[in-house]
Specification:
Chains A, B, C, D: It holds the Pfam family TetR_N. 4 copies of one chain form a homotetramer. With 213 residues, chain A is an all-alpha fold. The first copy, chain A, folds into 2 domains: 77 residues, Orthogonal Bundle (Arc Repressor Mutant, subunit A), CATH 1.10.10; 124 residues, Tetracycline Repressor, domain 2 (Orthogonal Bundle), CATH 1.10.357.10. The first copy, chain A, is 73% helix and 0% strand. Chain A has 10 helices and no strands. In chain A, helix 2 packs across helix 3, helix 2 packs across helix 5 and helix 9 packs antiparallel against helix 10. The longest helix of chain A is centred in the last third of the chain and has 27 residues. Chains A and B meet through helix 7, helix 9 and helix 10 of A and helix 7, helix 9 and helix 10 of B. The structure holds a DNA duplex (21 and 21 nucleotides).
DNA sequence: GATGAATGAGGTTTCATTCAT
DNA sequence: CATGAATGAAACCTCATTCAT
């Protein structure tokens, strides 16, 4: 499996531990880091707190990570699976495009809600460190491009408003969903009821693209 | 005139200077602070850099501000006029709701583009300091509420899809616009052509609310 | 007067203090640094010890110096006058070249003995930090070149062995004197009687160049 | 065979390995240490670098050495043969004292040039660690004493200037040669042509002691 | 009002050394 | 004999803030 560095693009010189013991320690540090980061924020989190949480010494920390940024990268990396493959297990393709959009939005929002604190953290760090902004942007781009392709396809099939630019519309609607998720779940401003948010998002997607036509 | 503190909600003990010289110095510091913040970001900006830019001493800084947060509040405050009254001079009320929305979006996006760096900065600080997050949230809420009232009105007049929740839809659509503005103008990701963005936003608003009906 | 940096070639960003108080503090730090360096050596000297000796805080140290290397440069710089102009007040030019050489050697050795600890320190640091090696080399080169010119002149006047290469001979004899000074005064190995050393050095110079001719 | 410790005077508790495998590992470490020391200097050399170069683990290092100083002692020890017996195979005793001095100087300088990097390293460490300064001093003393005996002999036979103190003159001239070697070969300042240096050194010895008489 | 020297808490980072496997 | 994860003391350095001039 590729090292964390290669996936998030955050440079790393430290290699993955080879022994079972090393792996266990590294894992404990990543877990502890997530706890401390979510509790104190990236800036307030101190290495001592992380190592205390992982019940190891500062020196051990530096055996596995170059510094705060690198553990953070590892934390993000560890949460990728959960966020990247947001379920979408059995998309009801035959129930029409609206159903697909709804399922997709729900999957995204469910995953977002589950990792709300981490997403907030990611936003914070992205605003501080350009390398993480790049990670965030890449992730968002991937999401946007997938949606752009979908919209294009619907337009080609005559099911969606052909006057909207697929790329930009996908971007705008994706941002709408992700930002609403951010405010509702990460900032805890506004309704926290998932279904309510799914409903609005889906309606605005469907209406926005004129899918009813 | 009310102190900055009262407007942004950031506590201040420092009074506004009474002499002309004092006012000039304070102004120079706010201007310098904006330059340095926009150039280095909030975290990297050091008070020495700001006073150097303003060609005055550190001591002088503390004559007017309590610290970094307070100058930042002053910088934001100084930019409020430009952002709060985003033109909207002659809204063509009689050309129909779509025209109003378009004008409103354009006004917002024009102002955003003009203050892009500051908006990015505001985002950064909001993620760091809860007091500024509150400022940001209040601002967004005001924008959202205004839009919610409009939507409700359109629904009442039978011009908009009555099935969408006006508050949440307003919030979602407002976030869509502001976030797209942020990415395009502040992060400089994606198209920087204003009209293109105005067009998409307006179309998605109009379609989304089924205003064509 | 030129800053330390420009003379020793050690880069400095810190400017010289402008106020009297600042000058006094900086001076105290340089003096304290010399004491601590001579007592503990460059490597063992800690910044805390220096600031303690100067009765000021660590922060104050960093107001004037970038780090250990920079104070050391300042210490060396402060001692330059004493070493560079090693007296040589009334060189008895008319008593013949041997007398000139003796006076020159004596002046050098007297200055060396007076600054023996610092010279030892300089040797240590030169072996550790290439920038100081460069300073040392430049100093030695200047000394050697002056002697080379003298030898050449004596050769031209038919007073010195014409078969020796003036540059290399000057270098060799200069090194002989400086190294003997180093071992006797800095390392305190061998005789510490100045006149004895002056006598041997002078005789080896005079014989070596065949000045008796 | 006596342990390294007894020769360099550096205390050691580690015994020499008894097995063939152990000897091979130890040898690899000494070789690797020389490479790393010559490349990075004593201070910058880290034990990890040495063990990496020797392709073994840190733990293994401690099987054979107490620490950095001890491997360094072993490195020096391994190079002793080359430096201590600097050839001088068939000194042409009957060609006169000048020829002996020339042969002796050449032998020394050839050996020095071959081990220039190590000699530089030795100088560095001697300035840092008094135990190695002692090793260096002992070595220099031996060289000086041998030369002092020679000079005395020449004086007794009426072949050398009787007015120079044999001990101090020998010391001075020996330092001249060794220091010139250091600067030319270790620091690479000045001519690197061996014969040129041999010529000057020999002439200054011969002239300096008035051997022509 | 303006100045800038002085402060020092508090974080980060390194690497020789140990020791259980 | 070989391994390499774990340790933690010890030093560095920053910069917001104070205050005497």
């Amino acid at each position: 499996m590729a090292s964390i560095g290669s996936l998030t693009g955050i440079a790393t010189t430290k290699e993955m531990p080879t022994t079972r013991r090393g792996l266990r320690t590294r894992e404990a540090l990543v877990k502890a880091a997530r706890v401390v980061f979510e509790r104190d924020g990236f800036l307030n989190a101190r290495l001592v707190d992380i190592t205390a949480e992982a019940t190891c010494s500062i020196g051990t920390f530096y055996t596995y990570f170059e510094g705060k940024e690198e553990v953070f990268a590892a934390v993000i990396e560890a949460a990728r699976h959960d966020m990247l493959h947001p379920g979408m297990p059995h998309v009801p393709e035959d129930e029409g495009p609206a159903a697909v959009i709804e399922a997709s939005n729900r999957a995204y929002l469910v995953a977002y809600k589950r990792n709300a604190k981490l997403m907030k953290l990611m936003q914070q760090v992205a605003m501080i460190d350009p390398r993480f902004e790049e990670v965030r942007a890449r992730s968002a781009r991937a999401f946007g491009e997938r949606n752009a392709r979908r919209i294009k396809e619907l337009q080609d099939r005559g099911l969606a408003d052909p006057t909207v630019d697929p790329e930009l519309a996908a971007r705008a609607l994706s941002l709408m969903v992700s930002r609403l998720a951010f405010e509702c779940f990460a900032l805890e401003e506004g309704p926290r009821d998932l279904e309510e948010i799914v409903a609005v998002c889906t309606r605005l997607w469907v209406n926005g693209l004129n899918l009813s036509a």
